[in-house]
Amino acid sequence: MPARKLYFEAIRVGDELPALAKAPVDRVQLSRYAGASGDYNPVHVDEVYAKSVGMPSVYAPGMLVMGMLGQLISDWARGGQMRRYNVRFIKMVWPGDTVVCKGRVSDRHGSGGRYFVEIDLWAENQRGELVMKGSSQIQLFYSLEDENRQRSGQSPIVVEVPRESLATAQQASAGGAAATSPSAPEEGEEDDERRTGASSKKTAPREKPAAKTATLPTAKKAKK
Amino acid sequence: MLDKNAIGRASPPTLNEVEKGAIRRFAEAIGDYNPIYYDEEYARASGYPTIIAPPTFPASFHSAADLRELLGVGIKSLLHAEQGFDYERPIFAGDRIYVSTRVSDVFERPGISGRMDIAVIEDEGRDEEGNLVFRARRTLVVRAAKETP
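YS: structure for the whole thing
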């Protein structure tokens, strides 16, 4: 059975992707990746060579780490289609290093029946140092109903969703501290009264995720 | 300083056949055991015609490109600084994809130890009907070999 799918309607700007801690990189993995990718650059597989060019040991190709961060996206965005994926390599990853992949929804928008989420991504080593950062755009169905319609050849559900980061910025500049996204996810377990209270609590931290979980990439982004 | 004339230089398209075993080994090497890369039935139940390849799989494609030829210099070392992909659709097992490589930009950027030569190399993958499947961009810091012809 395929895992539960992700739909656009359930995603909010600021949502965090569940962090993915990979197994420590070892030299066997570097060999396997060299074989699988066809990139036999000796700095990644030949210890003697790597030392001869001044490296303390072999090190992981950037593309391997990009693959790990790609796993974070694919695990989260089940049922979605990756449209864009960009990274910048920042620090080398050595045998013994543990890569932890993280991400956060930075925007969501939809038009003409096509829906997209934008994700900020980054990877850290076991010392919390940034080794890679990037971003991705994922296309999703609006909802299960939208998927069923499209798979049966019907037209998609069309909801115009302006870029939420812009909307949030406008609300913030208008002094709307209580501004929340129009439709908070409400899995109805509680009665109406309690749900209203719960949902405002639930959405409040989502409005300013950067302040709560500020890490290097976010801090940099905020300054732009 | 790299030769600006290199911009636009391209290699002819090279056929890459996407094999299931290659997808499996690539996903295994990353340590990604998502059944969508291994299990035909699971992939179909997920809405795909067959198993798909991980997003960075185009890194395993080969093209006829020789960077020294494309850039017109001997290369002492290359540092992979950035990588980007644009996808028109997922890559499926059984796909036959023609990959061509071109130099999309060459420029200098200030670095820690003087100016750095940067080359942006773009790969383009198309199916047999000529439809675009993906574009990949590599940003490389190039250290040319000292001996200049």
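YS: worth flagging: The interface with chain B takes residues 1-2, 22-23, 29, 32-33, 35-39, 61-64, 66-68, 70-71, 73-75, 78-79, 81-89, 147, 151 of chain A (CB under 8 Å).
IM: good catch. Also The first strand of chain A starts at residue 16 and ends at 21.
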